[in-house]
Write a structure and sequence with these properties.
Elements lengths: L2 E5 L3 E6 L6 E8 L6 E5 L5 E4 L5 E3 L5 E4 L2 E3 L3 H9 L5 E5 L12 H10 L1 E7 L2 E4 L3 E5 L2 E6 L5 E10 L2 E9 L2 H8 L5 E3 L3 H6 L12 E3 L15 H14 L6 E2 L1 E5 L3 H13 L4 E4 L12 E3 L1
Parallel strand pairs: 4-9, 10-21, 11-18, 14-19, 16-17
Antiparallel strand pairs: 1-10, 2-3, 3-9, 4-5, 6-7, 7-8, 11-20, 12-13, 13-19, 14-15
Length: 297
């Protein structure tokens, strides 16, 4: 059985927005139990946007949330870090419209959070436990979930590119595994797409410092890749962030093939409507790897 968590104290992070190209200051602030994750746009009169599936307004090359005409973009890496570390309640203050991209991974977020410390709160959290297989398919992309004693993700991607073809990975999601195996994996893109993205007002802050870029013959970044299968690891990182918008930890085995943000969100919505596939329980969600990080409050 797991308890809710927040931060022990405030964390400040500043960096460029991947798509806006603007410098953004972000503060992660402890929040009371049962708050959830709340984004606050300090440059828009402290407008609040709750991190939940109903707040998703766009999934074009990122997951973007909005409420009453105010938006916050590229939330998936931060949400993934929070989900991976079991942070349930948090205020995320931003003075811009996008979460900073940092190095293109969740590494900085997880590092800052673990250095600051995680606080256990005096309220238990329930889980969405899968009791029947469920799947969704769109063209050549699929996501399925099956019953499993824990939280596991299996992911496959395939690109018709000389640098790599197929990459696959299967991993049980724990705090330790997330920090070591997933958080450092960076986002990636193709050099041939850069001009098109920028013509649409996207990727204005993208660079070799915050993304792996694939040219015709391979990765053009001078710094080496962090994992031989870094691309699929990042896809799992993205999926964890998107699926956290369920609002409850998921207890099951997620299996994805060539999925992305749009299909991740469709999967969540359809799963929630297919009520025979899951139940809300409080017994699972044991995460002993976090016991050393959290202090009761």
């Amino acid at each position: 059985m797991r308890y809710q968590h927040t931060l022990k104290q405030e964390v400040t992070v500043s960096g460029i927005g991947l798509h806006t190209g603007r410098m953004i200051n972000m503060r992660l602030k402890p929040a009371p139990r049962d708050t959830g994750i709340i984004f606050i746009r300090t440059d828009r009169g402290n407008a609040e946007i709750k991190a939940c599936i109903n707040s998703v307004v766009d999934t074009t090359f990122a997951t973007n949330l909005g409420f009453n005409g105010v938006r916050v973009g590229t939330v998936e890496h931060l949400l993934s870090a929070l989900a991976g570390l079991n942070i349930d309640n948090l205020y995320v203050e931003l003075d811009g419209s996008e979460v900073p991209i940092m190095d293109g991974s969740a590494f900085v977020f997880t590092q800052k959070i673990t250095e600051t410390g995680i606080a256990k709160q005096a309220k238990k959290i329930s889980c969405l436990r899968i009791i029947k297989p469920f799947s969704i398919e769109e063209e050549f992309c699929q996501i399925a979930v099956t019953p499993y004693e824990g939280t596991k993700v299996t992911y496959r991607i395939h690109h018709n590119h000389p640098a790599f073809g197929e990459q696959k990975m299967s991993i049980d999601i724990t705090g330790t595994n997330f920090i070591k195996e997933l958080a450092p994996a960076r986002t990636y893109g193709f050099l041939k797409d850069v001009n098109l993205l920028r013509s649409k007002g996207l990727a204005r802050g993208g660079s070799l410092e915050n993304a792996l870029v694939l040219g015709e013959n391979g990765v053009i970044n001078k710094n080496k890749i962090r994992f031989k299968d870094e691309f699929v690891r990042h896809k799992i990182l993205d999926a964890i962030g998107d699926i956290s918008l369920l609002g409850l930890p998921i207890y099951g085995h997620i299996i994805a093939n060539k999925a992305g943000h749009a299909l991740n969100i469709k999967f969540i919505k359809k799963l929630l409507s297919f009520k025979d596939a899951w139940e809300i329980v409080s017994e699972p969600c044991i995460s002993p790897s976090h016991s050393a990080l959290a202090a009761s409050i």
